[in-house]
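Researcher: We plan to redesign the surface later, but first we want a full-length starting point. Tokens attached.
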């Protein structure tokens, strides 16, 4: 949340259309490497992998420090219209100000929906996939390897889409098309999965593969298309909206959406059939 708040505050809209998909694409390289390490978790061991994760996270601090020292302040101006509001007081600072802006600005409420509503679906679909995977990969290391294959596949799709397709789609068809592209693909993937389960009479392995592919679409296109588009929507907003409201949306709003998906999973966790039918329908 803080990374994107910072990036949105120093980036102009036209630069974002060109640069945000590239940021997402490069980020997926790291995600592919991290997921790839999980595939070989039987060699490294899970505690050693956690050490690598910790060191990687700590490396962000000197990287941002270096960026702030080397990049001229003239290149960190952000959106011109939004910059005009930065010297204006928008009310009391802190957590409640972000909520006030959210409730009084329909535009920000729209960003909330774009940012969080898909988390409910992702949570349900991911639980379906992991429930099936647990039966096929019952050991801890076996399940970790499955998660590694899933991570590599999903982030490879994100990388290719962000590198080759997202920037083109946004520049040619605009943000509105970008906002619609992901939900349309997600609905098609879920409808196909539900139809395959109903009429395809799949084996457990085939059903896991189909759910795996649907999850790739949900996560992969979510990262590559929906994420950069929703971040671009913050650029014309004020500094308070970028940091306070965005922080509320990304942390509280996203977690509440995951809670909603978790509640659906909890209702049907004892019956995979009902979870697939009603969970996918929700």
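Model: Full-length starting sequence:
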């Amino acid at each position: 949340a803080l990374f994107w708040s910072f990036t949105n505050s120093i980036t102009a809209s036209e630069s974002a259309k060109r640069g945000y998909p590239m940021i997402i694409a490069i980020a997926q390289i790291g995600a592919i490497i991290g997921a790839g390490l999980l595939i070989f978790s039987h060699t490294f061991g899970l505690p050693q992998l956690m050490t690598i994760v910790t060191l990687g996270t700590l490396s962000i601090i000197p990287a941002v420090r270096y960026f702030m020292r080397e990049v001229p302040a003239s290149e960190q101006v952000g959106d011109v219209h939004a910059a005009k509001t930065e010297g204006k007081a928008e009310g009391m600072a802190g957590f409640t100000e972000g909520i006030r802006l959210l409730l009084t600005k329909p535009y920000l409420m729209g960003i909330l929906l774009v940012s969080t509503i898909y988390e409910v679906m992702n949570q349900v679909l991911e639980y379906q996939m992991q429930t099936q995977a647990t039966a096929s990969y019952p050991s801890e290391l076996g399940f970790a390897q499955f998660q590694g294959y899933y991570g590599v596949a999903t982030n490879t799709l994100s990388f290719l889409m962000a590198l080759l397709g997202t920037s083109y789609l946004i520049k040619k068809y605009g943000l509105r098309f970008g906002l619609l592209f992901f939900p349309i693909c997600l609905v098609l993937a879920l409808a196909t999965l539900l139809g395959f389960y109903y009429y395809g009479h799949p084996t457990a392995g085939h059903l896991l593969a189909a759910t795996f592919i649907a999850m790739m679409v949900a996560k992969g296109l979510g990262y590559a298309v929906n994420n950069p588009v929703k971040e671009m929507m913050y650029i014309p907003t004020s500094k308070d909206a970028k940091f306070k409201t965005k922080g509320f949306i990304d942390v509280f709003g996203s977690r509440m959406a995951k809670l909603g998906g978790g509640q659906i999973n909890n209702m049907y966790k004892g019956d995979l059939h009902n979870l697939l039918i009603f969970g996918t329908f929700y």
